[in-house]
UniProtKB/TrEMBL annotation, chain A:
The chain crosses the membrane at residues 21-39, 45-64, 76-96, 116-141. Its main location: membrane. The keyword Transmembrane applies. This is Multicomponent Na+:H+ antiporter subunit B. It comes from the Bacteria. The keyword Membrane applies. Keywords: Cell membrane, Membrane, Transmembrane, Transmembrane helix. It is a multi-pass membrane protein. PANTHER family: NA(+)/H(+) ANTIPORTER SUBUNIT B (PTHR33932), NA(+)_H(+) ANTIPORTER SUBUNIT B (PTHR33932:SF4). It is found in: Cell membrane.
Automatic annotation (TrEMBL), chain B:
Belongs to the CPA3 antiporters (TC 2.A.63) subunit C family. The lineage of its organism: Bacteria, Pseudomonadati, Bacteroidota, Flavobacteriia, Flavobacteriales. It is a multi-pass membrane protein. NCBIfam families: PRK09094.1, PRK12659.1. This is Multicomponent Na+:H+ antiporter subunit C. Keywords: Cell membrane, Membrane, Transmembrane, Transmembrane helix. It comes from Paenimyroides marinum. It is found in: Cell membrane. The chain crosses the membrane at residues 6-21, 28-49, 75-95.
Automatic annotation (TrEMBL), chain C:
The keyword Transmembrane applies. It is found in: Cell membrane; Membrane. Pfam families: Proton_antipo_M. The chain crosses the membrane at residues 6-24, 31-49, 69-96, 108-127, 133-151, 163-184, 204-228, 240-258, 270-292, 299-317, 369-390, 405-426, 454-472. The keyword Phosphoprotein does not apply. Belongs to the CPA3 antiporters (TC 2.A.63) subunit D family. It comes from Paenimyroides marinum. This is Multicomponent Na+:H+ antiporter subunit D. It is a multi-pass membrane protein.
């Protein structure tokens, strides 16, 4: 049914096929940007935006409802979770007796990721907040129209 | 380059202030945006424009060996842009709400208040 | 002393806000979390206040980056006083709003935004970095925009537009000033700026920059001629929101002025004269504005403007004793203004209106409540021994000593107008017979459950008690203000403490 209605406006076959492949690719790319962001261009904000673009593209190809179905929790809850992760990453050095938000790093570098520290955790929190905010805005708008 | 930016800053500020004096609410908002952008470029300009590398000292060195660009103005501008993004998004929603309640873009149409003291 | 504890109140409010987001739309849980979070934050602020008094100065170099490169957090006596006041008012308003606001507003995330706003205020009072101050200002104004405009009716819209426009403009001016300051000094740390600004040879540029700061902060703290947004915005939101706005938001601008014009810029003769002139005009316009108003909230809004004049006057006198008066007055003003906005909310619940011509016989119907309001009104005027009296006397004395008679006249006129307006509120709303009979439908206060009534009245009693305490214990508060004023007059202590701290 829905397909027929869409066919009248525009045939979405190409967009849908490409969105299917682009979604995992873009998310992978966003994670790449998130991890390299400490010294190189990238970071949580940009990574989060790219990840949300992936979902936005998917919602264009299908419908916002179908995109929403991919989430087992509401994207809204990514916002407090992300804030909490960032908050705790700032608190971590306090536990170790340093100033709030001091970067603390593991001595050993982790496979693939490289140096792992509280800065990455902070960025991860930002990433989640950005994805949460963009998706919440998107779904709120699509519900109202 | 500097002169160009100086002119640009002046243009942004004057255009912004001019737009704020109009009666239309959308123009008011545009004026505020222009002012904000003018302020950002001002920070960029006044912080000193240098061609240089990112200010990261290599592990084997203890000080900067090459010319480096001052990262502070960029950080300031980035922060200011993000903040003004949020404010603008909010202001647009507010203006839309005003438009739907009053049905007008004219600021004078809002002047009902001073009747009830 | 370097300690992470300085951030504890800020982080507590942030944590409460995050927790509230997890319980979106669950009204009861949100109320409980908010009250618990506010109480813990209050205890933390009390502890911070005590630590600052015993240790003198608390500092924190965020992220372990040494000043002047990193962001510094700094608590001196002035900051500690402001933090304590914020905690007190936010606790009172937090409890008050659990009962006074309707459910839909709470579902819209009221408490989340509220805690975010308080976090911004605390951050602004504790930061030692001028750009960080800008960021906290933005946190506060964006939260205040949301609180002010949610559920907007047409009446709110004009105020909201003015408020949003003026505050955005103030931010741009503030940002421009920061940009120029960074351009001429190359630093953003307030303590470091102090030394660098003094070395700048182009004094004219420094004065212009300082005046840009004054305009930016002046819009936020509603001084003449930039105050007009305040009376049209502050009387529209629910009283709980108006209480926190009226008590703290304008004072944030005053705090920033006190900080910038004591540490960073040393005001010259021209700037001081300007402050005095602005103070006189603010006092007069604010006072004149109150006279023909009928709504209690509008009267209060103009009184806020009028009383900002006292604070600017003290800033213009620029002596240690004047600063003592300013700080004392600030303490008194924050408590009384928040309290009175909450009282106006209770009156609104009792009579469905705050128009004093339509109010009446409150004294007959609610004698105990009226007695308490009388105490608040008396301390607003400054009848000895209540809290408003001492700072006013100090300020008058100091103005007289400096032979600034025009300012003295303006201060006295403003005091008398306050007296007149307060008497008018009292006789119209409390003494007079109600013009129309009070029916059951009008009174929304009596049907409240007992816990609801307690949540409405207890904060008002608490803040009134604080007002009384300040008045009766003026000796100690005076000593506290004296300590803060001494530190303001000797910025080198502040500067040394920030720049010499090692982790």
């Amino acid at each position: 049914m829905e397909r027929n209605r869409n066919n009248e406006k525009l045939d979405k076959t190409i967009l849908r096929t490409s969105a299917n492949y682009l979604l995992p690719l873009l998310i992978l790319f966003s994670i790449f940007l998130l991890i390299r962001g400490h010294y190189l261009p990238g970071g949580g904000f940009i990574g989060g935006l790219i990840a949300s673009i992936a979902f936005v593209l998917h919602s264009f190809a299908y419908s916002p409802m179908q995109t929403l179905r991919m989430f087992s929790i509401k994207p809204f809850f990514l916002i407090p979770t992300g804030l909490l992760v960032s908050f705790l990453s700032g608190l971590l050095p306090v536990v170790l007796g340093r100033s709030f938000m001091t970067g603390v790093w593991f001595a050993e570098s982790v496979v693939v990721i490289g140096a792992f520290g509280s800065a990455l955790l902070f960025d991860l929190g930002v990433y989640m907040v950005v994805v949460g905010v963009v998706l919440t805005i998107l779904f709120t708008i699509s519900e109202n129209t | 380059m500097e002169l160009l930016l100086v002119i640009l800053v002046g243009a942004f500020y004057s255009a912004g202030i001019y737009m704020m004096f109009r009666r239309s609410m959308v123009k008011l908002l545009l004026g505020l945006l222009l002012l904000g952008n003018g302020a950002n470029i001002l920070i960029f300009l006044i912080g000193g424009i240098t061609k240089g590398k990112a200010p990261i000292i290599k592990p084997q060195n203890t000080e900067f060996l090459e010319v480096y660009a001052d990262p502070v103005p960029q950080a300031l501008i980035l922060t200011a842009i993000v903040i003004s993004f949020a404010l603008t998004a909010f202001a647009i929603v507010l203006l839309k709400r005003v438009y739907t309640t009053t049905g007008s873009d004219d600021l004078d149409s809002l002047n009902i208040q001073d009747l009830d003291i | 002393m370097t300690t992470n504890f300085i951030l504890a109140p800020v982080l507590m409010h942030l944590f409460t806000a995050i927790l509230l987001l997890f319980f979106w739309q669950k009204v009861f849980v949100q109320k409980v979390i908010s009250i618990v979070g506010n109480s813990i934050a209050f205890i933390l602020c009390l502890r911070l206040f005590e630590m600052t008094l015993t240790n003198g100065y608390l500092t924190l170099q965020l992220g372990g980056w040494q000043a002047p490169f990193g962001i510094t957090f700094m608590a001196d006596t002035l900051s500690a006083i402001m933090v304590l006041l914020t905690a007190l008012v936010s606790l009172a308003v937090g409890i008050y709003s659990t009962s006074s606001l309707n459910i839909s507003r709470i579902k819209f995330g009221y408490f989340f935004i509220f805690h975010f706003l308080v976090m911004g205020l605390l951050g602004a009072f504790l930061t030692g970095d001028i750009f960080n101050l800008y960021v906290w200002f933005e946190v506060v104004i964006i939260s205040s925009f949301i609180l002010l405009t949610v559920g907007g009716k047409k009446m709110q819209m004009e105020g909201a537009i003015k408020y949003v426009t003026m505050n955005m403009l103030a931010s741009v001016i503030f940002l421009t000033a920061i940009g120029i300051l960074y351009g001429i000094t190359g630093t953003l740390n307030i303590a470091d700026l102090a030394g660098k600004v003094a070395q700048v040879e182009n004094k004219g540029l420094v004065t212009v920059t300082s005046l840009l700061f004054f305009v930016g902060f002046g819009i936020k703290s509603a001084v003449f001629p930039l105050y007009f947004w305040l009376p049209s915005a502050y009387h529209t939101p629910p009283s709980a929101i108006a209480a926190i706005f009226g008590g703290l938001l304008t004072k944030m601008g005053i705090y920033a002025m006190l900080r910038v014009f004591t540490v960073v810029f040393q005001p010259d003769h021209f700037t001081l004269t300007l402050f005095s002139v602005i103070a006189i005009l603010t006092l007069i316009t604010g006072a004149l504005g109150t006279i023909n108003k009928r709504s209690i909230r509008r009267i209060l809004s103009y009184l806020i403007v009028c009383h900002i004049g006292y604070l600017i006057a003290g800033l213009g006198l620029n002596t240690e004793l004047a600063f003592v008066a300013v700080i004392f007055y600030l303490i008194h003003d924050v408590i009384v203004k928040s309290n009175f906005f909450m009282i106006s909310g209770i009156i609104l619940k009792m009579r469905e209106t705050v128009d004093i011509t339509r109010l009446g016989s409150l004294l007959k119907d609610y004698p105990k409540f009226s007695f308490m309001v009388a105490l608040v009104l008396f301390s607003l005027i400054g009848i000895p021994p209540l809290s408003g009296f001492w700072p006013k006397v100090l300020l008058f004395q100091e103005t007289f000593k400096q032979e600034n008679y025009v300012l003295l006249a303006a201060l006295i006129v403003a005091s008398f107008v306050t007296l007149f307006v307060v008497i008018r509120i009292w006789s119209e709303a409390f003494w007079k017979e109600s013009p129309k009979p009070i029916t059951e439908e009008i009174d929304h206060f009596r049907p409240f459950s007992l816990s609801g009534k307690i949540a409405l009245i207890a904060p008002v009693i608490g803040l009134t008690a604080v007002s009384l305490f300040i008045g009766l214990n003026a000796n100690n508060v005076f000593k506290l203000a004296e300590k803060a004023a001494y530190e303001m007059k000797h910025p080198e202590i502040y500067i040394n403490n920030v720049l010499s701290t090692k982790e």
